[in-house]
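So, can you check these tokens?
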Amino acid sequence: MPRVSLRPEGRVAPPHVQQAFMLLGSATIAFGFSMAAQQNIVSNFFENELGLKGPQFGYITAIREIPGFLLIFLTALLYRLSLPHLTAFAMVLLAIGFGFFGFATSFWTVAPWVIISSMGYHTWLQTQTALGMSMAEESKSGTVLGKLTALNQAGALVAMGFVFLAFQFDLIGFKGMFIICGLLALVAAALVFRFPNMHNGELLEVKPERERMVLKRDYDLYYKLSLLDGARQQIFFSFGLWVLVDHFRLDVPAISLIMLATAGLAMVSGPWIGRMLDKHGERQMLGVVNIAYIVALLGYALIDNTQIAVGCYVIYSLIMPLSAMGAAVYLRKIAPTRDVAPSLAMGVTMQHAAAIVIPVVTGFVLNFVGYQIPFLVASGFALITVFVTRKLDVTMQKTNAKRDEELARATV
């Protein structure tokens, strides 16, 4: 893994930051492999092995998102754990859930493993972001998150190639692949457990304090971004691959090639996207990316063509990480350090307040209408988000606690 520069002036980071980046970066690669391999095969596993239909895809998605909705309460209970140890615990849960996925035989026998793996995954979403931003100065937040996104996609790229070869030549079945996913999650847990406690790239002798739960009016725009992101994202996440499998009849090797191409492009574009976020700011980048969402979702819904649907899927998947990155960077710029991690957890909870309801409703609607309707609804959420992003103003919305923290740091 190459040396990294996470300081504002572009200097090579000191050894402790290099070591921390190696640990988190390697854990991110292992997680990326585990998650991508599972996502690659799960739609086919649900349809071909368990016999689930379109509405049941929505219902299983809603079950999966319940832990995301309850995340704020889980992190509040575990607030005494340091962020690295909480992240390692999350990866152990992910490993257990993925490892037992392949032993399921029906909707109800797969549900417990969906819930357990989801608890791990959704915890990782906010803690990995917080750990990443702890390695860098505020002005480099986007850069470090972009690098981690690229490493996540590198793991996904390897996973896609592995899954393609394994299923193309019938080398391994669903059960064996799920077990491999669980083992990679355990590797990620072992690596991130050793991550040091840091703030702005500086080592801390004691772990930083975290609030149990944060819900403040000061962060209302962050909550709105999270809520809208969750509504839009879960429609696509629930039915995007299912449409390719069910409507366009793509098999596991074809899905693998699509996700392989997506991961390769994302690995290359991730660092550039992070730099653009730091250069142009979250307001401009979030506005642009949501316009791109609208184009991709409308294309998916209105044009009944396999190549165009695949192209829209790739475009959407490629830009999807920018929403969470932009919202997290905005939050860090307006909130004091002690509020960042629990507020990220609250953001995930907000996302899944919508993510629990939306897939169930759209899954029910699929009983009566074509698959196009949910994607039209998702494009509507993206349009609303465009207007919300216009209200972002870091200078005016920075909290007094954040200003005091910056003043104290400048004095030191």
Summary: The chain has a mean pLDDT of 84. The longest helix spans residues 15-49. The two ends are 34 Å apart (CA to CA).
